[in-house]
Model the fold of this input.
Amino acid sequence: MIAKCLFFVLFCIFSLHAGTNDNPILSDKEKDFLKAHPRIVLGTGDTWAPYSIIHKDGTLSGYDVDILAKVNKSTGANFVLKLGNWSKIQKEVAEDKIDGLATLVCTPKRKEFLNFSTVYISLEKMIMVKKRNPLGIKTLKDLDGKIIVILKGNIADKQIADRLTKSAILYANTTREMLEFVIYGKADATFGNGATEYLLMREGLPYLENAFKLNQHLDLHFAIKKEWKEAITILNKGLATISEHEKIFLQKKWFFTKKNEDILFSDEEWEFIFSFIGLILIILLIFLYRQYQIKQVNKKLEFEVKQQIERLREKDIFLFQQHRLASIGEMIENISHQWRQPLSVINSSVMILDMEISQNTINTKYILKKLDEIEEMTEYMSQTIEDFRDFYKEDKHKTLFFLEEAIHNVLSLMKIYLKEVEVEVEVDANIEIMGIQNEFTQAILVILNNAKDALLLNHTKEPKIEIKLEDTVSHYRLSIYNNGGNIKENDLLKIFDPYFTTKHKSQGIGLGLYMAKMILDAMPSHFYAKNLNDGVIFYIVFDKEAIDERK
Done:
């Protein structure tokens, strides 16, 4: 406390001296210069908060404003800021309309026509990325191949960007645009500092974070035209009177930096902290009460959810029963198609035998031939029943099976339906997957039945079905394409819903694709569909790692 009082007394004495015309820190030549130039105008950008901010009433605030106020107080000078478009401000210096610039990075080109002050602020540079750092950018090496956005005309950031030869550089017209590029994914990162953190909070964009520090600082200067040598010495003397404590205090006021931790809390700050703690306690009590209410609501919801789950379970059982009935119907329909031709042959043979007997023109060889045909046809019909009985037999034991073999089994069962359809199969015969083979073939049968129905319904001139397998590093992707016309985009999202069908009600109840998806999802695999050219393509994607684990 004594040290604070002593500092205050010394500060007041110093301020009284600084306020007099006989300023002890200035030379006679510098005093004469100030008499001749009572107002020295420094230009800066009008979008560079928090260095300088212009308010609606025309007043200025910001870090640069506070620093120059201290310089003016200690030297008796009158350094003022003029805010405007940065490009126009620089032209005004060149045209001698203003006396210098503020918030400036020192470069050799600028030193040709300007005298620079000492550094009045040094901010640590950092890489700013989207919240939670989704790309895992932690070092400069991680920026290889990434897109970095910087502010057009920002020389300091341009110098850093030029060294990142493996990164793509974008340029934004405003600071907000630069930040939004990263927030909305047009760029992967940008350069920032304490001022960037301030802008994010002021603009209501708390969606970026500091990925890592660059071990590099943004050093800013004031600069005045070359011929005014006294002006720059006055400015430097004024900056020298600002203590490190005062600079840290101003940085705390205007920037979000770690240097803020170096300042002890004032009485007002402690009062604010205690008020804040009290507010937190009230919020905590409200939160605990709300938690109690939520717990009661959750109990009620839990009971209702259990009831809903029970209803859904009953619905699933009903759906499976309907699917079973539908499967039996499909089996009977398939058998009837397979039997139609053999029955026709048997019927024809019986009629011929009947004619032979009635006309007494019995030819033993011919009759034996016809009896052989009848025997062959009845054996074929019997085998058809066996094939479909095995196909629909319930089997919940998962095994490895060959993908191509399972597909050809389905195609052989559907050969009557697909005799007018060009079927192309490109599947490696050695590819194995894990699952219940009968269920998988039922799912394939559903997909091919849908393809057949689409080709018939749309009277496709050159009907075709293409079955192909794509073998990638991590997945097998089976595609089944038919050129029977597109499905409406709205309907495409619903085709896997139960009881949804694009066919007439007499042709189906909308359970086939729903059950196929349930079967394939349980394998597990990813089953989806999309329109392609003049038809529809179904995809079944198997994860190789999941297959290997089950082996």
Observations:
- The longest strand covers residues 208-225.
- Residues 298-388 form one domain.
- Confidence is low (pLDDT under 50) at residues 1-21, 257-264, 504-509.
- The radius of gyration is 42 Å.
